[in-house]
Each structure stands twice: as structure tokens, then as C-alpha cells.
Amino acid sequence: MATKPDFPDPFVFVPRQGKPQLLFVLLHGESAGPEQLMPLADALKQAFPLSLVVLPYAFEPADSKGSATGGDDAASYYWVDPVGLDQANYAGRVAQKLPELIRLIRQIQEKYQLSGQQTALAGFSQGASMALEACHAQPDLAGRVLAFSGLYAKPPADAPPATMLHFFHGAGDQQVSVDEVESTLVRLGELQGDATLDVASRIGHELHDALIKQAVVRLQTCVPLRNWEAALGALEAQARDPHNAAPPSLPIQAGRTLH
Length: 259
Hints:
CATH superfamily: Alpha/Beta hydrolase fold, catalytic domain
Largest sheet: 7 strands, mixed
Radius of gyration: 19 Å
Shape: globular
């Protein structure tokens, strides 16, 4: 599943037994490699043993010649061209790379016969921006996004209709402030988006174990808002039907919480 000739293949972890039922695609941060997200991959494999976990390399090698070996002294990679990168051109460069990322995810889904609703994207820092923006560019791409220490490349104009967004952040993050994340959650709420936020104290811009553990909890316990609304609709319909005696039980919808 290499994206380019002579480009390193993603790390792919398949279930020990059985066909994969879930797909996690993990996107590392800038100036890093897939190894950065191995602790998250390990936690997901343990919590979801029937999951397929894929960790691709970002598209832009840091060295000027564009070569990469992926060996022990693994080169660092960026999702967008880092030369001359600034806040003014960041969103545009992310948008340029989204089709390549979407193609990669679709290729994996087709190979293993997994749908968008069976897919979760997770990203750290720049990888979080790519995951968030990809689900806006392709609304049926994934059912969940786990955004660690990262935000959209530009403020969202709408909310993805089929994707639940989970933000995980360190209170001491000096690169992406908690205030920015909280403002984004408010905006997503205005747009009828489905999102949660967990903030860990005494943690900076890092993929901390506390945030990884909370991500697993969110995946295991949060019911997407669309499921809640469907169940509520069924309850109302049943209440209008005099022949139905017992109402269906509703799932518990986790709201936005700050820790």
C-alpha cells in the first residue's frame, strides 16, 4: 500500500484470528514517523482485537532529496510541504494533500472490505488536522476521528454528518491552546456536530498515556449522536402507536466533558 514508488509501506497490524471488523488509520505528527503512534496502536489492538490498525508514513520526507529508508534511523516526514509553511498557507497545503490521503484510506477499506462506519482515523498534531479535514472533504470516510493535540487547518464551516469527533488535549499545550480547542467545540455545537473534548492537566503537546487511555474509553462508551436521535425517533413513534406496550431503551449519549 505504498503511496509512491520507493516510498516506505505503512505498518499494518491484522487480527491474530478472524476477519477485521474495524479499521484504525493512525496519522503521525509533523517531523516524525509512524513509530510515534505505536503506543496508541498497541492500546487499540488490545482493546479491539478484531481491528486492523494501519500506520502510514506522511507524504513529504524531511530530507531535500525526497528519499527515505524507513530503517532504524528513520527519517522524519510531514503531511504537507514544510518549506515556507506558515499559518497563511497551511490550510491550502493541507487541502492539496487530502485527495492522496483519502485514496490511501479507500484503498485499505476496499482491500479489507471495511466501510467508512467501520473506520476510525486518529492523528497527532499535524496528523490530527489531516484526519479532521479528510472527514469534511469525504463525509463517508470514517465514523470516528480521534484528534490528539491538533485542530482543523481552518475553522469548520459545517460539521461532518456521519463522523463523531473526539478531541484529546493537554492543558499545557503551547502549540495548540486549549482555548482554541474549546472554541472549536462551541462552533461544532452551533453546527449540530457530534464532538467530545477531554483535557488532561499537567500535560503539554504530547501523546500522553492518559489521553490514549481516555481515547479507548470514548471509543468503548460514546454512542454517536445520530444513533441517539434514531433511537429517540423510534421511541416517539412507538409512543404514538397504542399497540406498543414497552418503549425501547435509549443509549447513553456522552456529552462534551472536560477532565
